[in-house]
Amino acid sequence: MQAWYSSAWLVRGARAAAVILAALVLHGSGERHTAQVEPPVTVAEARLVFPAAKRLGKFDRERRAWLVHGENDLPLGLVLTTSPEADELIGYSGPSNLLVGLTLDQQIQAVRLLSSRDTPAHVEQVQQDDNFWKQFVGRSPVKGNDSVVAVSGSTLTSLAMAEGIERRLTGNIVSYRFPEPLTLAEVQQVLPQAKFLVPDKVHRSWLQVRNQSDELSGYALRTSPPADNVIGYAGPTETWAALDQAGENVIAVRLRKSYDTPEYVSRVVEDEHYLNQLAGRSVQDWAQIDFKQEGIEGVSGATQTSFAVAEGLRRRFVLELDQRRAAQTAHLPLRLRDAAMLCLVVGALALSFTRLKGNRKLRLVWQVILVLGFGLWLGDLLSLALFNGWAKSGVPWQSAPGLVALAAVALIVPWSTRHNVYCQHLCPHGAAQEWLGKFRRWQIKLPAGVTRGLNMVPLLLLGFAFVLAIVTSRADLSLLEPFDAWALKTAAAIPACIAIVGLVSSLFVPMAYCRFGCPTGALLKLVQSHGAERFRPRDAIALVLLLLGGVYAWRPEDDRVSKLPNAVPAKMATTFSGRAFGTTWKLQLRTAAPESLQEELATEVERIESRLSHWRSDSSTSQFNSSRTTLALEMPAELLSLVSFGTELSAATDGAFDLTIAPLADLWGFGPAGRQVPPAEAQLTAILPNVGWQKLELDPEEKTLRKKTPGLKLDLGSLLQGYAADKLGELLDARGVGEYLIDMGGELKARGRWTVAIENPADAAKPLKTLTLRNAALATSGVYRQAGHVIDPRTGRSVPARWQLIAVIRPTCLEADGWATALMSSSDAALELATREEIAALFLDSEQQTELSPAGKELFAAP
Known about the structure:
Elements: H1 7-35, H2 43-46, E1 55-60, E2 65-69, E3 75-81, E4 96-103, E5 108-116, H3 120-127, H4 130-134, H5 155-170, H6 184-188, E6 196-199, E7 207-210, E8 216-222, E9 237-243, E10 250-258, H7 262-270, H8 272-278, H9 283-287, H10 291-294, H11 303-331, H12 336-353, H13 360-378, H14 384-393, H15 401-417, H16 421-425, H17 428-436, H18 448-455, H19 457-471, H20 493-505, H21 512-516, H22 519-527, H23 537-553, E11 574-580, E12 583-589, H24 596-612, H25 620-626, E13 633-634, H26 637-652, H27 662-668, H28 681-687, E14 696-699, E15 704-707, H29 717-734, E16 740-744, E17 747-751, E18 753-758, E19 769-774, E20 777-782, E21 789-791, E22 798-800, E23 805-810, H30 813-826, H31 830-836, E24 840-844, E25 850-852, H32 856-859
Antiparallel strand pairs: 1-2, 2-3, 3-4, 4-5, 6-7, 7-8, 8-9, 9-10, 11-12, 12-16, 13-15, 14-15, 16-17, 17-20, 18-19, 20-23, 21-22, 23-24, 24-25
């Protein structure tokens, strides 16, 4: 037995030190990368809360904020934003992002508004109320929340902002909108025997309802704050539910405070049948409820308000069920995955150090277990990406003890015993290669020189991955190895390709990937001890690489994360862009504009898409589509306005244009469900009763929309891009922007005089037409990308298109977008229709010949 001070133990000690040093170097680089994250605010914005600010410094990890420096580089405090933590807090119609300044002793220095997706009028009212902003000054986040005085007339907007500050600074989920606790008098209206309300020790935020004898009669719980962001027609509503003694079944539901339209709230309160529908269900039922299947249609004349009440309850019980599951999991001494992982580790050790290691039949069974159990079920293979993440962010001792034990065995056992237990007995990728290697007649013998060269590849990959992980935080090391491919549901293309190539190669060269491609295997071989321990060339290379990495990771740091000058020079021209509606949008300005305008524009586009697109499951359009009721439903004014314009186009085109084409579009594969085969005649016959603009009833005075058949669905896709362009134009006009050109997925809106071009279907490099667009909008509709056919909503069939492309110029982009589609749908009657309606239009037929409507002859002239 060798003494502890022998050369063998010195080599082993050096290798252990190398692993520890590598982890420290990666951790140090992770700290540096975190500190060098670009702050979401500029120096100019920081001066809103610290007027003496000169620059932004290091990132404070604990508070996730940036240090602000003033004169002589003295630290003034910290600056942070409430986004993204508070992005889910909806005021009246959207979230807000606030700038918060903290003094060095953790008190609020000042709060300012950076941006908001909420209703502009409400936001402006809050901005102008100095008392609202002053009430936060001097507060200490560590002391918890105090009461907040809202801005009269903009209550929802201002209270959501206050909740955002609280959540960002303390992590607490509070409700300033519904701060009043449930009272005994309220509970007694449902449970007359109630005499005491006692906080429950098990269920968070539940109240025990006890009678005069202090016996448990049931439970009471509020939907706030989990349901505070469920908006009905004009605002959120808080409800409370009474549960039975077991705390499993809802026995009654009642409304409390509401910011919704009082008339609609009253209708819900007075509708006992609807409230009784909400009772009689278990917590489990509520967490998994399907409103359609359960026949919960809402209250006539107050549908959105009543649906919001039901949705609020659903969210509350989903949260409750999640909390129960988390509590159960926390109390389990060992989870199934961890137990399975530990069993695999024990089995591998037995195959390495007991008499079982020579049993071939047992090894075959074990390999099957590895591939099916470890690989395809657990999928938690060791990898460089895993080790890198642990080194930078910490080891998940509590959340994944089985995986941590596996990694410990994989590193310690080969270091101390010379047995590479992971590669030999635990890796399912290695087991799969060993199977494939049994086809010996296909195997080839590589030249010795080639083998020596290939042996260096895993070590080079390991060094490359180490360097990459140090110099950048964005490196995805999982792309260097095949192990993510075992997680079949989330497998990325590159790891899958590496896995396939490695497995196929093992048919010809035994264990090809393990020998010539695996950097994780190279790491385990580096720490592995050998019979005659001595320093090898690879040990020296590894130590040099570690030392260089340490010098780089811990080099003197310049803490000037943001070196923005005191004044940013104005741009002579500005371009902003983004993505929406499955395409891109772009804005060109001829004057300077602040960078903050980008967020305002993107926010407005996102608002429109999220509220009106039927591709968004939570939009008003999707809510209308999913409803099976034929009762009148209250709908937002925006949606009603678009539907009104759409029905005008339907009437003008004799139904060739139809906003209710959504069921047909789905059937043909052009909807959110994706592409399908052409529908059969029987399918068309079945779906046509659910299509037809005359089956849609709009009441502008009552602000309602009604289906005459339950299966009717809206598709506003032919209007939304043009509408979004118009709304961006309104935003820019309100900001005083003089000249701009908006390109919303090809639909153009111009303020001022701009030279634009229409795409040529025959040759994209040569424009079909170049023209001057002045204070107007241009939209096109074409079928040259979709096999030259359109769907006729009156028959449900696909018919040949008369025109390849139609371009329309109108005062607004909504009109241009809608009329371009309407004319394309009208086929042979399009030119006559454009003439009758005085629409400026350009038509391109299949022979590449163009025609102009009378109104289009002047507007489509060359510049």
